[in-house]
Amino acid sequence: MNILRNYLITTYNVYTRRKLYTAINLACITLTLVVLMVITALLQNVFYPTGVEGKSDRFLQVWSLVLTGENTDQNSPLGFKTIDRYLRPMRSIESIAAMTFPAPVSVYHGQQVSELQMRYTDAPYWQILDFVVLDGRVLNAEDVAQGKFVAVLNQSSAIKFFANEKAVGQSLNVSGQQFQIIGVVEDVMHVNSFADIWMPLTTQPSSDYQNQIRGIFGALLLAKSAADIPAIQAEILTVAPHIVAEDPKRWQHAYLFADTKLDLFARALLEHRYIADSGAGTLLLIIAVMMLLFMLLPALNLINLNIGRIMERGIEIGVRKAFGASSNQLVLQLVIENVLLSLLGGALALLLAKAVLVWIGASGLIPYLQVNINFSVFAWGLALTIIFGLLSGVVPAWKMSRLAPVLALKGAI
Amino acid sequence: MFMHMFKPIWKRKSRNLMLSLELLLAFLIVFAVTAFAVRYYQLYHLPVGFAHANVWSVELEIPEDAAKELIGKELDNAKRAAVAQRFQDFSRALSAMPEVEGVAFADYLPYTRSRWSSEFYLPESKQAQLSNVMGVSDAFFPTLDMRILKGRWFDPRDDGTGYTAAVINSEFARQMFPNLDPLGQLISPNKPGENMAADNVEEAKDKMLRVVGVFEDFRNQGEYMSPVPFTFTRFDGDAKWLPNTILLKLKAGTPRIFEVKLNQQLKLIRSNWGYRVAPLSALRENMLSTDLIPLIVLAVIATFLLLMVAFGLFGVLWQNTTLRIPEIGLRRAVGASARWIYAQIIIEQLILTSLAITIGAVLLVQLPITGALGAQLNWTVFTLALMISMALLLLLSTMCALYPAWRASRMTPTAALRYA
Predict the structure, then answer these.
(1) B212 shares a domain with B351
(2) Can you tell me the ipTM of this complex?
(3) Which of A34, A111, A305 sits opposite B257 (nearest CB)?
(4) Are A119 and A111 in contact (CB under 8 A)?
(5) Looking at the whole model, is its pTM more than 0.90?
(6) Which domain holds residue B85?
(7) Most exposed residue of B5, B232, B278, B404, measured as fewest CB within 10 angstroms of its CB?
(8) Is B338 a domain residue?
(9) CB B272 within 8 A of CB A205
């Protein structure tokens, strides 16, 4: 304990002796960590969100159907028939939701024309996703079954149209049809829940969707518990071969996969269209390698700074070596100095990253984005910090341990 | 004199190696961002080939049952007639509106990510040339205020010729007919000899394109799209499918609320079809801002990195001069002036930076030489980006060296020597 205290005292003395140097070092660490933490927070918000899509560990998405024939293949969203007839009877799921992907629609209100992002949904969609209802209610089974012309708005759009008036109960003209607003929900920027306005899928202009294998839908499959996820992923593989395309001569094989959010992106980016493995492992590896590459420059920067400092401390090192300090002890001293500085930088970066995220949210660069640095992002940040401290401390420490005491004392390095 | 400067750098080569490596990395990053920005600047100033002012778009969402009636592989006359009828319905009803000056049809919209491309062949050659294609009606060109370079736009004179009329951009003309006058030439969407069984010669002939004009360019994805070969084929009201996009030229100053009236008029024509109306200027704005996002993200990250490199460089130089105080004192004692010391430290830093830049430039020049990134990194972009990033990096390292150099030069020889 006492030894550790000595290390810490030395560290403190080193920091305060060269204030400018410490400040520069700290600024470099903080800047790098801010960038890394903001990126991690954004990635985490996509892959492992909290809030509206907080149940993400319990549901899987089926976003596309791949049909292949001789020499041709086709990748498209699901038709409603695929969801209703083939996916709904699956035994391993608790419930299933159908939704379309956000599409722009024109909304007319008084003299105002606005473009909103619209989704058609069914009722289970609102149970699988935990929207924050600010006023009124969300779509229920009755609205969908009867094809009522009702809509749910998000907060920004409600304010845009009705300012301070109560939006619920008013009506809006969406592409020429009147819809009554029954609820207002909080803005959200997650892959399945992003939209400005939601309507029952039964209000589509035509009822053709009921007979489509390919179409405009995506499905969300809710598992009874997170442990059932692999069972769903396995079951859907047995469902896909039974799908009969509208033109079975042309399209002989169908492929469907139930994906986690990470899988979704991996599958799209790596084009794993026909195989069950989405390439999520590869995607994570790519992200990790890119982050390491990004960290290369900051690490080199810190190494350069640290090497310089050791030379300056040649005399101190020489004296300590002459009095019998082992190389290990000296290395430990330097590594502790670095890790502590990195931790300090990490704490600062945490505050700054939070400020940057608030700024991104307020600037509207990404609409409706609300990213908080939660515990796991903090843990990631902490891990990054320590890796960073070690990375930038190892080379100088190794160099230092090689110094012969006589030379160090002479200052001839 | 140069060797004189070089010697102290060489003496500390292992330290300087790490420093050069850092400068090299920083240079590569700055180059990547500037090259990206320069290329975008270059593209932005190329002609897009059309005018978006006062043009509105209507995308048709045709329900399945109606589509079955209109779209299909078979060229039966009933379908052709149905398509021609729809085409006329829309044309007539929309032209009747007082705000509308022109009605044109197209396969897809400009200022969207859409891209249709197809391989084309000369009648006797098996060499394929890839070109973007778009089927449009005759009114498309005046609606978008496009200009022809050679020949003419297609018009009713092309009715009943047995070929589909086409106009191509100068890039495609250059690739397809390097030594020929493109006007009047035939191009085929099929490989010669294939799909030409005796019984469907008629159909094959029907698919042949006849070039009637050459225009400069049409960059459908907007200002930041790289120029590519482009072909317009004629939609003459007698085609196999109904283009699902309508472009309307409106009177200048038509307000946005006209959309309500337009929507009503469209619903009168076909009530169960879906319509998505948007002014091209809105699509353009949207497209330009999404195109800029990657550049902005990269630039922000690069700025952070550069800021950090600047901090680091400053710290290192500051320490370096501190360490070299005995040397500097000695130099002062044997007659070097303060100004000379100042210059020496800055020049040393510039030599080191130039070294890193040279290595970086040698690595980077491989890209345009091998053509790895094609037209995206052409020589103009490369040279300009290289100059800018060199200047930026030299500026950065000079700025970082100013204060440490001044501090070192200010020291009197006695103080400097005692410091040791």
Answers:
(1) no
(2) 0.73
(3) A111
(4) no
(5) no
(6) 55-251
(7) B5
(8) yes
(9) yes
